[in-house]
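Bug #77: duplicate submission created two jobs. Keeping one. Sequence:
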Amino acid sequence: MPVIELRKDNFDATIKDNAIVILDFWAPWCGPCKQFAPTYDEISNKFKNVVFAKINTEEEQELAGKFQIRSIPTLMIFREQIAIFSKPGAMARADLERVINKAQDLDMEIVHKEIAKQQNG
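Kept job's structure:
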């Protein structure tokens, strides 16, 4: 699946309408972002049931601020509209694949119960 560009106007729908979304917060001037881009693109073709998206922090400062992005690239994974992973810095191909596999294998019923428990104090 090709990597999509996320903006403020399509962010919520993308997160809501897809089971797993991986976000790459980046900027055009960022050297590590440019080096990581081919790996991210390559991995996006391997995982057909995962949406891979990029957010240009220069153009989407409001989204970058919402997620308190302080370093780029930063990767985030949403599953069932819940942020389950966030890590600044580019990742090696094998590490990224491992994280995606773990995200797919995560028992979301346990996650939802834990969130409910925290919200109910």
